[in-house]
């Protein structure tokens, strides 16, 4: 395989051979096996640090470190969206028939946390990894600098030119430019505002016009031609997630994998019904029932619906599962992740 320089100034340090990155997909889809497969393909994969305690994250990092020459870790930056108590109670009541259907208990009161942010950041300071990516918000300069002093390159997820400029101002090493085409949660720092609907190519061009930082483009990328398009627009690499969800290395549920291939699921939409934060998913019964009425409130709604989503997945019933999917979901296949990544890279 011929070596390219997909990551701009970071290529020599990271040793990447292809301009394709396996995205972090928190909550189960990203497994150590998927991260190792990305490295085997000549690229980089990310351990998804979200939704797990620091001790569990440390175990995953060590499993990956033993097999992958290069990899990254993604963290959620605390950027809470407090839920209105009355709206929370109303949503609990609306969800009760679904809870009864799947035999689960719903938390009566909102649960709030910071996803163990400080412990995970300290873990990465004490046990540095090649790359750390940050999403949901911009931490203070010192948090970024502490990771850099430990030897990590720090990339910030941005969804607009304004966010890109703020990230550059606090010294990040690069930008993960995520458009509204991306599956799963939007990395927007202002989740109370409507998400700007734009293509990944357009957003990359907008941010390249104002920033010289390395750009990794994310959102709806599922073919080699799309990889070439975002690179021509100014990205150094393409970040892909949904296209890997059906691979043997993916930890996505059977219900999720099946829905991606099911012709009955014909569209994606942005919804905050599952987590209280905007995210793109396949339209299903749950999104039909609650997208219009669910309140904002992260992480309270994530905790509220988690047992319901798990029960639905356990029964291999996709009706109440958060079927995260980007606009390129039809390109997902059951091939090994290494084969998909190499094909996307044109290797």
From TrEMBL:
InterPro entries: Aldolase_TIM, NMO
CDD domains: NPD_like
Keywords: Detoxification, Flavoprotein, FMN, Monooxygenase, Oxidoreductase
Stored Gene3D superfamilies: Aldolase class I (3.20.20.70)
Superkingdom of source: Bacteria
Swiss-Prot/TrEMBL cofactor(s): FMN
Gene Ontology process terms (BP): response to toxic substance
One family name in Pfam for this protein: NMO
Catalytic reaction equation(s): 3 propionate 3-nitronate + 3 O2 + H2O = 3 3-oxopropanoate + 2 nitrate + nitrite + H2O2 + 3 H(+)
GO molecular function, one term: nitronate monooxygenase activity
Family listed: Belongs to the nitronate monooxygenase family. NMO class I subfamily.
PANTHER family linked to this entry: NITRONATE MONOOXYGENASE-RELATED
Protein name: Propionate 3-nitronate monooxygenase
Species whose genome carries this gene: Nesterenkonia natronophila
């Amino acid at each position: 395989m011929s070596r390219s320089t997909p990551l701009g100034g970071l290529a020599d340090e990271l040793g990447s051979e292809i301009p394709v990155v396996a995205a972090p997909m928190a909550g189960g889809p990203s497994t150590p096996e998927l991260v190792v497969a990305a490295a085997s393909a000549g690229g980089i994969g990310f351990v998804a640090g979200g939704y797990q305690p620091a001790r569990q994250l440390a175990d995953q990092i060590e499993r990956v470190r033993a097999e992958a020459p290069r990899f990254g870790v993604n963290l959620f930056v605390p950027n809470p969206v407090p839920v209105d108590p009355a709206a929370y109670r109303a949503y609990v009541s609306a969800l009760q028939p679904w809870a009864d259907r799947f035999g689960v208990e719903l938390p009566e009161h909102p649960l709030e946390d910071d996803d163990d942010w400080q412990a995970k950041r300290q873990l990465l300071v004490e046990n540095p990894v090649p790359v750390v990516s940050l999403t949901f918000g911009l931490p203070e300069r010192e948090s970024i600098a502490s990771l850099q002093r430990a030897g990590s390159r720090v990339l910030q997820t941005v969804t607009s030119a304004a966010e890109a400029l703020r990230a550059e101002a606090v010294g990040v090493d690069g930008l993960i430019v995520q458009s509204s085409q991306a599956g799963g949660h939007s990395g927007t720092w202002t989740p109370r505002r409507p998400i700007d609907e734009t293509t990944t190519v357009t957003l990359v061009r907008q941010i390249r016009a104002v920033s010289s930082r390395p750009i990794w483009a994310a959102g709806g990328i599922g073919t080699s031609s799309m990889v070439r398009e975002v690179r021509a627009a100014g990205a150094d690499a393409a970040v892909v997630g949904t296209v890997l969800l059906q691979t043997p290395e993916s930890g996505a549920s059977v219900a999720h994998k099946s829905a991606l291939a099911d012709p009955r699921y014909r569209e994606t939409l942005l919804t905050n019904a599952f987590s209280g934060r905007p995210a793109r998913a396949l339209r299903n019964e749950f999104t039909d029932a609650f997208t219009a009425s669910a309140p904002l409130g992260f992480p309270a709604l994530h905790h509220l619906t988690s047992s319901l989503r798990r029960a639905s997945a356990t029964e291999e019933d996709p009706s109440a599962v958060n079927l995260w999917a980007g606009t390129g979901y039809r390109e997902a296949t059951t091939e090994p992740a290494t084969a998909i990544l190499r094909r996307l890279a044109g290797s």
